[in-house]
Design goal:
The protein is of the alpha/beta class. The protein contains 8 helices and 5 strands.
């Protein structure tokens, strides 16, 4: 920070998974466990309208967890910020995603592409079981906005390493027209030197 514009809120990991009743419970359990493995503060939540799927995923998490080396970290993360949420339908799931604005959204849907354009607030959208791969090699930078900042921020990209300079130039007629209006604002703020600089030609 200070040399390039890369300051932001990065971490802990936030992953919301949206799944329909055709999703594979073992794949979903693995994805939840992988995201929870990052940190005790990591957030890993499955959203689904399918109660049977939710129950199968819960059983799979319980079956797979004992064999994982970072089991204690995963248990802490899931106890604090993990879970399975039953939603009314996929539309409600998308509403929750957009309200939360997570770093990481994973869609486990039979037809994911129509849902991608409905997600307005997310650092990254992953289609299917590619989330862990996205942490390392797949796709663009995995430095993604967290803490709800996906509402207004983007993943780290080339643009963050570039510097822009604004240039302002106006034709005389346009400058005088804008100066009269700007002077009113300047006087309202009590900045009379600004106002006079624009008024006195």
């Amino acid at each position: 920070y200070g040399l390039v514009d890369i300051d932001g809120l990065y971490g802990p990991t936030e992953a919301l998974l949206l799944a329909d009743d055709r999703a594979d419970p073992t794949v979903l359990a693995r994805e939840l466990l992988a995201q929870a493995e990052h940190d005790p503060l990591a957030l890993a939540i499955l959203l689904t309208p399918s109660r049977p799927l939710a129950q199968r995923v819960s059983r799979e998490v319980g079956r797979l967890l004992p064999s994982l080396e970072r089991g204690p970290v995963i248990r802490q993360a899931l106890a604090r910020h993990g879970g399975i949420v039953l939603v009314r339908d996929l539309e409600e799931g998308v509403e929750l995603i957009n309200a939360f604005a997570p770093e990481h959204v994973a869609l486990f849907l039979e037809e994911p592409w129509p849902w991608v354009e409905k997600i307005e607030n997310a650092g990254g959208i992953f289609l299917g079981p590619v989330g862990a791969l996205g942490d390392y090699m797949a796709g663009p930078s995995h430095v993604l906005p967290t803490g709800g900042t996906a509402r207004f921020a983007s993943p780290l990209g080339v643009g963050d390493f570039l510097k822009l300079t604004s240039v302002v130039a106006l034709e005389e007629k346009e400058r005088k027209k804008l100066s009269r209006r700007a002077a009113v604002i300047a006087r309202a703020e009590g900045l009379t030197a600004h106002a006079r600089a624009m008024e006195e030609d």
